[in-house]
Design goal:
- The protein is α/β, with parallel strands linked by helices.
- It contains 14 helices and 8 strands.
- The protein has helices at 23-41, 48-63, 82-90, 96-102, 107-116, 127-132, 134-141, 147-154, 158-167, 169-175, 192-211, 223-227, 263-278, 330-347, and strands at 247-248, 254-257, 286-289, 299-304, 314-318, 322-327, 351-352, 355-359.
- The strands form 2 sheets. Strands 3-2-4-6-5-8 form a 6-stranded mixed β-sheet, covered by helices on one side. A two-stranded antiparallel ribbon has the order 1-7.
- Strand 2, helix 13 (263-278) and strand 3 (286-289) form a beta-alpha-beta unit.
- Helix 4 (96-102) crosses helix 5 (107-116).
Amino acid sequence: MQRRAGRFPVLRGDPIHFRQQRGFAFEPFACVMRHLRSGCGAGVFLSARSILFAAFALVMTSVGGSVQAVEARPDLEYFPSRLHAAIFRNWDIVPIERLAKVLGTDERAVRAAGKSMGLTAPEKISPEMQRRNIEIIIRRNWTLVPKEQLEGLLGFSGAQLDEFLGKEIFLRALLASPPSRLTPLAYEKPLPEVAARVKWFKTHLKKHLAAVADTPVEPRMFFTNELCRPHDSADYIPGTKPDHGDADLRSGWVIKLPENASPCLRDTVGDFADYCKTIQHTHRLDTTTASQNDRTDKTITLELQQAQHSRGLYILDIESGRIGIRGADERAVARGLFELERRMGERGGPFLSAVQETMQPSFVPRYVSSY
């Protein structure tokens, strides 16, 4: 490997040489110090220009110079600079206008910097995505920017960030301490040495993007759409047939509600009817009450039995022509409907085996915290 007069590697295409080289920031000072030592040893007086140059190099070394001053950061060795690392890591998770504000520039400059690295145009980040990106923003920027700029990227105040990290105790433990002497980032045009690294970065990034161009990609956070769906379409398996004696819910069934059913129970019944129709492909299940309809065939009857004092207990009574759910309260009856959904999902169709069971919960869960 070729080296300079000093001990730092020359930039090459190989990633091992793609380090942020200390020679950029420290070599001028080192040269001047060698000059000082040799001059003083020979009894030579230095000119005012040499002294000023040495002072300038010393100041540049002590304060780190510009934002592009080289830092020995193995975790960032592939990036042209810490500034470019911040732009790259936040490109798809922080709105461009917010990123530009944190870096003290405008959107045009940030977009140009991203384009120079080979990044495609950023997608619009919705408020919901911003809310869900909080943890990933913290993880990507914890070692890149000081706390004040991290707050700006999140749109948080200092108190809000402290509160979030106080709740996410495992995340805070994983983050550990940020690097010492982490200085604020501010945008500035790349110097020639950094520009060469930007060109190298763009070449390799485009090569990578071309290699994965045929890989299916779904929008960020798209999986939450599936997680938020109350019903799973995989519960229905085409071709599933009922067995002899099963309750076949494909057509002609109604749901009989208790008198004075609460809105909560009515919503649960509506959700069950929607599951049967949209997932299990049954005909529509109408709802009625005992006073409105006294039919018993092909009826799912929901009853409240106040004599049952056991919280959460319900009795499931399934026959081929009727289904009964008797519960100690409305929540117990709702759990009975959830159980019918679960059994149909396991079966792969709108069929329920005849059974009479008393379902007693082992424990009643209690909401404790949001995390």
